[in-house]
What we know:
about 300 residues; six-stranded mixed sheet; two-stranded parallel sheet; 5 helices; 8 strands; about 10% strand
Amino acid sequence: MPSGSESRGPDKNSGAKSAKAIKAAKKRSGGAKVKGGASPPRTIPWLTIGAGAAVLALVAILAINLVPKYQAKEEAAKYAPSVENPDPSVNIDGVVKVDYPAGIHIQPTQRVAYDQSPPFGGPHDAIWATCTGTVYPNAIRTENAVHSLEHGAVWIAYNPDELSADQVETLKDKVDGETYTLMSPFPGLDSPVSLQSWGHQLKLDSVDDERIDQFITALRINKNTYPEVGASCSSIPGSGFDPDNPPPFDPSAPGADAVPMDGGGISPDQSESGGAGAQLPSGMQLPSDLQLPSDLQQAPAEGGNG
């Protein structure tokens, strides 16, 4: 055979082998081009994945923190007062109710021999403790706090020896900036937490108890349950009660000269019944669900309520 035909046989075999090698290499690389025509290697978008994970984590954190609060508010809303249910607190387990006469005022130097601790009605100082969502870091004079209850406020008292800083913050979130509420430590309290409104009290062991929100919803400015409807919770300059430096709590037992629960002959202030005398300081507005009698719609510049 001619020599030229003998040299072409090996070339065909060599080309076939090269083609097979290229094909195998493509399979191993996922079909990508090799050498000069190679595609760039695939990169994992770690930045995008990280950002997505951060968003999901944020959503989860918000859900963990906000969903329970929303659910608690929804549950508490069932305790809002209505014509059909004027005092929803009767459906809250553990609430104690006592009827007290209103408007029995004592002097700043006097004490009251209260029958409850903390008290939630009875004789009280002529000046109320500021209760515009006020959180007092130190214990305040009890006789001033009781007057705030007569104005429709809810007072949250707590035992400072039984709650951690985080637990106090949990209570603070329920009060801070919420008008017609106040909060203060109460040394010697026989439970970690105690809620008071006029004639109502609820003592609890936990700051996470759902009944706290229920009590506030049922009794804060519930015009069916307190004497002085329309009275202000704001401070009146020169009244003798400074929320930044309030009269201090007296831990000692009232003496023999303390005013008894029946007032000891003190004549009740008749202006503190049925909403009479419920003038507000200038600029002070009532919540939308609370309306003054028509003859008290125009309030004077200085509050005259007691």
